[in-house]
Amino acid sequence: xxxVEPFANLNAxxxxxxxxxxxxxxxxxxxxxxxxxxxxxxTTPQPLFxxxxxxxxxxxxxWPKVHVFFTDExxxxxxxxxxxxxxxxxxxxxxxxxxxxQVHRIHGEDEPKAAxxxxxxxxxxxxxxxxxxxxxxxxxxxxxLGSDGHVASLFAGKKALHDLERWVIAEHxxxxxxxxxxxxxxxxxxxxxxxxxxxxxxxARALMAVLEGPEVPNALPAQRIAxxxxxxxxxxxxxxxxxxSGPRR
Length: 249
Ligand code: 6PG
Description:
- The N and C termini lie close together (10 Å).
- By secondary structure, the protein is α/β, with parallel strands linked by helices.
- It has helices at residues 10-32, 46-53, 55-58, 84-91, 112-127, 185-189, 204-212, 222-228; strands at residues 2-7, 35-39, 66-70, 72-74, 140-144, 168-174, 178-183, 193-198, 232-237.
- The site of 6-phosphogluconic acid (6PG) has 14 residues, from loops.
């Protein structure tokens, strides 16, 4: 099921998204004793990270019960400018009382395939069947949309898009991007709830192609989520949604 929720501007989007994260954290903690959240890198989540880190919002989440995972990572050390972990740590995680053992980073500095396998093992330990979850499910996955239609590090034409077995995959993307480690479509789509945050006019064309264009997930990886996720909401601002043909519910 997919829902598109437009907001007049970025501030309104971030405020609404904060309510979603707070409410999901409360219900997951009450029902399952923990809240598992996967976050992306890039510019998209930064305003949300900043807002959640503010003293007023920080108090609304029971951080000792939160486990933070990363949807994808670059093959760099955790201190690197390009590290998604570094970004989330500096903007959010250093400012909230989350136990350090519950921040689950992808070890981008290790050999990529080994790092992917180790991350899958770590995920299974927290959200796997032994934890009472039938298939392995994150409570909430947040994604950004690339202007070429990718999400996480699932890129057009790559094998990771079609892998139905692994939870985490390492794959060489191209010269510019190098090798990436990413959660698989299977794991992302099996989340209890998925939100794709899309803001800014440079995303308008990709958003229109993903939501209203022909179904070509091999070329537009975000369609693997749009058509495959258990429950996905597209929270967008007016600039990103300006090419959509109309309200979609
Ligand atoms: C990353 C991502 C990636 C990102 C999109 C959007 O680490 O880069 O997880 O999928 O969400 O590329 O990137 P921007 O938010 O920078 O536009």
